[in-house]
Sequence to fold (288 residues):
Amino acid sequence: MKKSLSAWNKLIKPRVSILVLVTVLPGLYLGTDSGFDWKIFTISMIGTFLMSSASFMLNQYIERELDSKMERTKNRPLPQGDIKPLTALLTAMLFIIVSFYILYAFINLLTAAVTLSGLLFYIFIYTILLKPRTQYNIVIGGAAGSIGPLIGYAASSNSLPVPAWVLFAMIFFWTPPHFWALAIFLKEDYSAAHFPMKPIVSGIEKTTRSIFHYTIIYALFCIGFYFSDPKIGLVYLIPTIALSIWIIYLSINLKRQQSVPLAKKFFFISIVHLFVINILIVIDYSVV
Fold:
């Protein structure tokens, strides 16, 4: 029983989904003037979690043979035979159907459509089309992981206003440096599976330079969100400026030293950074 639960945990990757759910929160708070709606919040969280989990299951279903060649992924449940591929596929389909239905039936069609579009983009554009073929896979494919704010605003306002797209762009530019840092310290793994990740194709020096450039753009969007929504105040802006300077400094260090330990450090800190930025938006809205 314990082994089975562990296998499903690895398959649906709930810890990764938590960050996705956090990016939905700002839109749920800021997208409406009629007050926070717990029903919309609950359905949005459940629907997004199910769709996110389905995307991870489908990704692992498609890449199960490649996963067996990588040290980091060879112990996943499908390569290990802990879960049958057909079981994973059917469960993913069920999650997609339930997610789309509850988002459409209890919130609105826009929310359901946006959430589904994220999964379709992730699977067909990123996983199948881009990831095995180009070093720019994550640059384009990152759009799939950026839809959290769009889901939040769609759920609370049935629209996709400018602030939603600013947050979308913020996550879009966060994604490449985050995954390029991962690819630096897992370079041999990706090479074994023949994934053309940027550190493999362009080298560490060019990759760290790109991480620096994208981090600057990401930081500018973090700060720029303050100017996109009059509901946001200094409780968000002041710490965000400090956090933005910090992550730019880390990217400069990585560019200068080009070391695996710094790449690993940047990877994990970037997760914390994005998490805190989104929580700051909610805190700012709650106290103003």
